[in-house]
Amino acid sequence: MIINRILKGTFEIPEGNNKVLITDPGYEPDVWCRTSANVKPGVYNCFYNKGYKLEPYEVQEIKDIAAQYGYDSAKMLKNERADIKRRCFRIEMTLSGCVPEEDQWEHYDNHIGVDAGLCGFFLKEPSNLSRDMWNKAFVENNNLCSIKKGFGFWSSSGYGDGNYVCDCVRKNNEIVALRISF
After folding, report:
1. CB of 149 closer than 8 Å to CB of 89
2. Secondary structure string (H, E, C) spanning 94-156
3. Which residues pair with 4 in a beta bridge?
4. Does residue 176 sit in helix, strand or coil?
5. Can you tell me the distance from the alpha carbon of 138 to that of 149, in angstroms, rounded to the nearest whole number?
């Protein structure tokens, strides 16, 4: 799949408060499927990756599955194409001036649980906020992603509930980028 990397905005990780919570905002602080990371303070660019179009091999895979099970391949392709254009595949926060190459990313955690269909990077405890605040932020951003200064960057988790992988980039033993792939 061809993916667009789109800059949503920026937020600052202040000196002395460099702990980022990586979680579904609905989880309580002591749940097992959330984590945190100490990152280098500074201004972070927040990106989301949205699907653009299917690769030719993906089109063929869908046609093969349709043929194997007697499904309508045109309908399956239409549904898949519509889905990738409205779904967020990854969110990323990267220290300004840092442009990581794909081979610089390393595994950080693979148990970022999602039950509310949202996940992100937070500077403050997200479970303390009201459901109205979450609903408003989610709807205002076309069900994709949102940034709230001094608070965090989060997104719809694309496929919904499940466990997702978090990767990081380190420079001089400091984390300068984090991403969650849905």
Report:
1. no
2. EECCCCCCHHHCEEEEEEEEECCCEEEEECCCHHHCCHHHHHHHHHHCCCCEEEECCCEEEEE
3. 50
4. strand
5. 15
Residues 6+ apart with CB under 8 A from 31: 23, 113
At 121-146, the pLDDT tens digits run 988 777 666 667 666 665 555 556 77
Kindly give the parts of the chain with pLDDT less than 50: none
3-class secondary structure, 18: coil
Order of strands across the sheet that contains 42-53: 2-13, 42-53, 88-95, 174-181, 162-171, 106-114
Residues in the chain: 182
Neighbours of 42 (CB within 10 A): 16
Ramachandran assignment for 104, one of left (phi > 0), alpha (psi -120 to 50 degrees), beta (any other): alpha
Q: Indicate the residue type of 92.
A: E
What type of residue sits at position 131? R
The whole-angstrom separation of Cα 10 and Cα 30 is 28
